[in-house]
Amino acid sequence: MNRLQNETSPYLLQHAANPVDWYPWGDEALAHARTEDKPILLSIGYSACHWCHVMAHESFEDPETAALMNKLFVNIKVDREERPDLDSIYMRAVQAMTGHGGWPMTVFLTPDGKPFYGGTYFPPEDRHGLPAFRRVLLSIAGAYRDRRDEVLRDGQRMADMLQQDFAEDSRSGSLTPDILDHAYHNIAGGFDATFGGFGRAPKFPQTMTLEFLLRTHRRTSDPRALEMVEKTLQKMARGGIYDQLGGGFHRYSTDERWLVPHFEKMLYDNALLGRVYLHAYQVTNRPFYRRIVEETLDYVLREMTAPSGGFYSTQDADSEGEEGKFFLWTPAEIEAVLPPDDARLLMAAYDVTPGGNFEERNILNMPRDEDVVAYRENVSVAQLREAVARGRKALFDVREQRVKPGRDDKILTAWNGMMLTTFAETARVLDRADYREAAERNASFLLTTLRPQGRLLRTHKDGRSKLAGYLEDYAHLIDGLLHLYQATFDLRWFQEARALSDEMVAFFWDEGTGQFYDTGRDHESLIVRPRDVNDGATPSGNSVAVDVLLRMAEFSGEPSYQRIAAHALAALADDMAHHSGAFGHILGALDFHLGSPKEIALIGPPDAPALDALVHTVFARYLPNKVVAGAEPGDEAAAQQIPLLADRPLIDDKPTAYVCANYTCQQPVTTPEELAEQLA
């Protein structure tokens, strides 16, 4: 009997009709494994994963393979996006066993959850050096039956290794700017000067590294730091990894040129990339970056936003069973939509050819500058832009009639917190009321639906919220609420952020070890309590927790937040300097910690144009190390909650800005020009 039909995860529901007797992770499955004395086959994936679909079709939908699985194992299916704790533990085990990891992940466990063998994708027949899945099943079951002592020893050895790995305490070090300098030089050494980005194919958009480079440029004025960011952002936004018609970024590029992506779109990628393009716009004032930000967030509003205000998780790589089909074009398809001259110019701009660049079709991309294309086509740049703009709209309208990729419509707190941050910050920087409204609706939804009885929850779908929130859920939501407070100066958002900060420390901080754990004190017992400090595709919960506590300390004046954050930073001092690529976000937190952050208080009536002018002066420029508070004159409640608002009268009855740093305040000012001078 397949037990997934009552789950809410779209990934689990994709497997609800399999002939495999799947269980969700839980006491029932683990108890059944103990009672039956069978090993556990744990399969972990996610709904937008192309190779997860392939293995499902080849093996989990195959009656003979399913019969073998049901006979020999207790089979558990897990959505890695719902259960990052299980994914983290067992991915670490698979990487230790095989030297690599990925999804779909297949792990064989003893009935008490200890891993003794694992891998990723297994084909139905022996192929490319990979053993056939059914051969693996028979071999593992035979080992468990005939060499039980050996299997149990391997499982215990792996559990001990994981215990040591997750509990390992980094050497505490001094927090100095030398760490930032070492990190910068390490990162610069891996830069691809031809195509942007870091390393070789496959290439991931390393947004946290790019953010650190922007901070480095701000801190040191080194032009190369900005050059690396701009080269990467321009190559990505002009490549196939960016959806040239609908906006938004695909997951990663399979080649070094950012041309051929894995076509899934992840909410977190678009949150993080939208933010780094916004910051690049603040630094350079280039309209190109603003366009990419707005197209990306408009895509999220159009495709990834629930009526409730929550943000959906992913869009699939496949449509109609083919990877990328929704996004691909042939010349004939374009010529059927556009007038001949417009078709010619658009195909020249987007590198569309009869032979194609992906399975005889075309991923739209812009490898040549506009002036080069215009010269070749004997038109002006203005004529080219007009034709491309008309063509993009027409092709987008036609594409909307195609079968769209599947969408994973569960709502994850951490990923929503990331997108909340991006909408709130963009609303303030670009003065977009619609983005601010989207951020407020999202925050209201998260606080009411995913925190129904106080304890923050992880996931929501089909009216059901469940699973105790992880460290990253708390940290990212706090981050989003602090940015929303700065976008609105509505005290409610700050109050909610502070309450969640206190809960986060209570549930996840361990004073004895000086560490944040990923799971709360109230979490179910697993073979190890996971703790991940590396920034990967998303910032680690640890990094974001440190970041938000540093800012909360500036807002609130509460020294315990600063102490905890500094302790967590010091524990990673050596790692940050020497393994910089895995610590991009927490390097930003260290830059904040060392950077004498500016405390900016803006006082005035909320509808006063003169206050708007001061707000614009603050947010138009790139000032990563700042906190900004605002209130009406005489707002005692705000001053009590946020001490930097206390004793801040209007000067000459005009909206007034107060700028402080290093326990020293400058003269209050009332004009944008004076404020700009202080911020410089």
Beta percentage is: 5-15%
β-strand number? 23
Count of DSSP-assigned helices:
27
- Number of structural units classed as domains: 4
Largest sheet: 5 strands, mixed
Helix content: 40-55%
CATH architecture of the largest domain: Alpha/alpha barrel
Mean pLDDT across residues? 96
What is the radius of gyration?
26 Å
Oligomer: single chain
Question: Per the principal axes of the C-alpha atoms, what is the gross shape?
Answer: globular
Looking at CATH, which topology of the largest domain would you report? Glycosyltransferase
Low-confidence stretches: none
What's the end-to-end separation, in Å? 66 Å
Strand order of the largest sheet: 1-3-2-4-5
Structural class, from secondary structure content?
alpha+beta
CATH class of the largest domain, anyone?
Mainly Alpha
Report on the structure:
By secondary structure, the chain is of the alpha+beta class. It folds into four domains: 10-167, 3-Layer(aba) Sandwich (Glutaredoxin), CATH 3.40.30; 177-319 and 408-594, Glycosyltransferase (Alpha/alpha barrel), CATH 1.50.10; 325-404, no CATH class; 598-679, 3-Layer(aba) Sandwich (Glutaredoxin), CATH 3.40.30.10. 51% of the residues lie in helices and 12% in strands. It is built from 27 helices and 23 strands. The strands form eight sheets. A five-stranded mixed beta sheet has the order 1-3-2-4-5, with helices on both faces. A hairpin with a 2-residue loop joins β16 and β17 (464-468).
